[in-house]
Design goal:
Elements lengths: L1 H6 L6 H5 L4 H10 L3 H39 L4 H14 L19 H7 L10 H16 L18 H10 L14 H16 L7 H6 L5 H18 L9
Amino acid sequence: MESKSDSGPASLTSEELAAIEDEGVLNKMLDNATDFEERRMLRAALRDLLKKKRDKREQERGSRQQDLKQQGLSKGGTTGGAVSIGRASMNQQPPTNKPPGKSSPSAGSQASPTVSSALKCPPAAAPNAKNVKQMLLDWCRAKTEPYEGVNIQNFSSSWKDGIAFCALVHRFFPDAFEYSILNPNKPRENFQLAFSTAERLAGCPPLLDADDLVRMKEPDWKCVYTYIQEFYRSLVEKGLVKTKKRT
């Protein structure tokens, strides 16, 4: 059984790749692939799988909302209607209650005391910091390339809705959560999901705080860069990323 996965997608057609419905399998094959055409086929298969899952979720959500609406009409439209609206708003509407200035800490935000210090991001001191920064940015871009809604161009605005963080974490832990149901209009939830999953599964310290990031127009690139460095380091320690020595 392992010999087929070791041989990679060279022996697989696009149709056979499309039949694979396990993101983890495709991700592993993508990590092992070296040929450009193989990687192109695998990225396309992974993109199609994520889109298929998202479409299925939206279809199921629409069916549930329709059922709830029908139940509300049959009961006079009070209780059922309220449930339907609540479910729809949870999945579709952007957050409206943004506290001005200082905000009271949210219920699950225990990281706030550590964040104030974490957000005071020190400037990179290494002489080759620019090369390292570009290499890390290229790595993030390559790992999230199959994910719809992610277009990493920098360490600031590209991360402001939390989707890029989620995609990067999901790339290494595809069973941790369902990427296809994430909502870019809910950045706080996306940040919390990505950071908590990275801490739980990769051992990455929660250097960033969702509430602080939401208050910013754009995340501070030094803070995001520092966090991604920590995440990368955690993956290396877990053996999920192999560093290569350049000659």
